[in-house]
Amino acid sequence: MTSPATGTASQTSRERREAARALLTHPLLTSDHAEDLALVRLHAAALRSMFKSTLDYHLVVESTFARLVKGPVSSDGPARPARRADGSAFTATTYTFLCLLCAALLVPGTGDQILISALIEQVRSDAATVGVRIGDTLPERRALVTAIGQLVSWGVLTETDGTAGAWGERRDEALLTIRRPALPHLLARPLSGLRHADELLAQDPQLDEQPRRSLRRKLVENPLVRREDLTDGERDVLSRERSELTRVLAENFGLALEVRAEGALAYDPAGDLTDVGFPGNGRTKQAALLLLGELIERRVPASAGSLAVTWDEVDAALAELTRRHARAWGDAVAEEPGALRGDVVLLLCEIGVASTTVTGLLVHPAAARYRPQPRTAPPTRAARRLAGQLELEM
After folding, report:
1. DSSP per residue, 318-342
2. Model confidence over 57-89: pLDDT tens digits?
3. What are the two backbone dihedrals, phi and then psi, of residue 60, each rounded to the nearest 5 degrees?
4. What predicted TM-score, i.e. pTM, was given to this entire model?
5. For the chain, how many structural domains are there in total?
6. Which residues form the domain of 348?
7. Does residue 318 contact residue 338 with C-beta atoms inside 8 Å?
């Protein structure tokens, strides 16, 4: 029988782990995630201490929101662009609109609610001031709607009456409610004192002083941590302190650690913390999986055991796959092969099994895990009879 003290401690540990997982999934929690936000507020002190000591992340907890402020992503990690509802990555225009929208919402005198037409007018005015031209074409309106939708998904804006999508298509008015306290915390670092945008993404030199924390950050944030990308200190931690590393990841985040010769992976057995599932359904994921099989068959060796293939080889393999699966993938793929290549390469880079070079694609050895097993024909009746006779003789 479990004692009351043991049961309470177990429940507290479970709640803190669920709260930490919620913050990793949604670094900005608002009332849209009421249950998760309540857990974070309940265990705020312990979570602040854990995130600081384990990952060197800063946690801000207020009455209406919680914000997990992460450090800049490691240079060896895959890019993670913001995405539209259809899965396509944000364009530079959409990112520009997103920044202009945040600036417009912070204009002094702006209330807690604003009409979308007034917000767009403020965005156009601010853009003209800094020399950014915003047209009124349908693609530009859709990009604006996408940026507004991102703020809605973060919980900074709420569509109180009407929708942003209706404004983008038909110019229908909409009333937006602003969660102002969370707005200044969208950026991980303050802009004051910065002279160029690149400084906002620069790696903090202090983050690299402790290899334990930097290794944990990479394992928590990256789909795959390549051994050759680790520092000497991180490789030493992975080798000497694997048991402790496994415990820390499991207790705090519910992650399981898998270490292979080519690198390490911290994965979520429940699948909740996986932002990009692979393999999976959809043309892009199917094409990416099949492409890996085709490229691994070529076995073109490069440095660090990776496979180097030229863009011509990638295009040839995709063209053959498109021919084989024309009925399932549709005619649009054959008409625009470059679009499929771009989507597939982006996906492979996002999950960490490939990287791009000037001449082509570098496929990491870990991709061999996705290689399909060779198909063998079932044994004939004569072969089965012969096998039976051999067993009797033995």
Report:
1. HHHHHHHTHHHH-HHHHH-HHHHHH
2. 999 999 999 999 987 666 666 777 788 877 778
3. -105, 125
4. 0.80
5. 4
6. 283-370
7. no
